[in-house]
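Narrative of accomplishments. A recurring question from our advisory board has been how the design workflow behaves on a single, concrete structure rather than in aggregate. To address it, we present the structure tokens for one chain from the evaluation set, followed by the sequence designed for it. No filtering or post-editing was applied between the two.
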């Protein structure tokens, strides 16, 4: 088994071994993974964060030993706390990183970071504070950063920054936690899931106080939540049909 470490700011994870293939997720600076298959230009990987699999360009990651992989994995996550920040390399070159990048491998990479760090489990109310940092981030299929993020990437990153682990896709996240029967039972930080006409869960958002929800739809935005689903006041209609509410924390 081979192992890898993302030593760049944001690297696309693709469905197939091609630059033109769909981006299914992103690998952020400092994230580790197992390398399942290596081809001439591409590698199929499984992320340590959520066991998500996809293809990454061989030029966009660093191969590491199993010993170094385990050493990095054994450390508590140290995450960058700013929307954008800077890493300085040993050659005095700069690497820009985004909110939620993992800084646990700084010493291994011989990189310097002087910004604020988030580590450990935070109180549940902090989930909403973190979520609001992403307001107006544009929607991007497979995205996980303030410069482009999808609905489940948004919830995953918000929870990650507060010390909680979510799976990658909305349908996967819906298998976690405990179901609630009514909106009235929910509290800020709980997750609301929404399905399509075929009954497949395709959307997720974070419940706020007073029946509001923050979610990635066109951009990260705040809308009303009721028993039918998400009501968009700009469009004067419901945009998503509520399926289930889950308490993860």
């Amino acid at each position: 088994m081979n192992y890898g470490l993302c030593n760049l700011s944001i690297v696309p994870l693709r469905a197939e071994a091609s630059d033109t293939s769909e981006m299914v997720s992103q690998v952020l600076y400092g994230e580790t993974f197992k390398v399942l298959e290596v081809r001439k230009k591409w590698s199929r990987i499984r992320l340590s964060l959520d066991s998500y699999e996809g293809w990454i360009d061989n030029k966009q990651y660093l191969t590491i030993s199993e010993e170094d992989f385990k050493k990095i994995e054994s450390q508590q996550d140290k995450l960058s706390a700013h929307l954008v920040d800077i890493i300085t390399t040993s050659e005095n070159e700069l690497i820009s990183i985004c909110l939620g990048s993992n800084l646990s491998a700084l010493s291994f990479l011989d990189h310097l970071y002087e910004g604020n760090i988030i580590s450990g489990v935070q109180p549940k109310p902090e989930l909403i504070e973190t979520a609001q940092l992403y307001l107006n981030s544009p929607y991007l299929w497979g995205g996980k950063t303030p410069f482009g993020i999808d609905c489940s990437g948004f919830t995953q990153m918000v929870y990650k920054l507060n010390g909680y682990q979510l799976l990658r896709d909305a349908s996967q996240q819906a298998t976690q936690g405990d179901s609630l029967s009514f909106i009235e039972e929910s509290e800020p930080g709980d997750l609301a899931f929404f399905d399509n006409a075929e009954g497949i869960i395709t959307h997720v958002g974070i419940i706020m106080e007073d029946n509001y929800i923050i979610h990635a739809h066109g951009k990260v935005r705040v809308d009303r939540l009721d028993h039918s689903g998400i009501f968009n006041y700009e469009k004067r209609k419901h945009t998503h049909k509520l399926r289930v509410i889950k308490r993860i924390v």
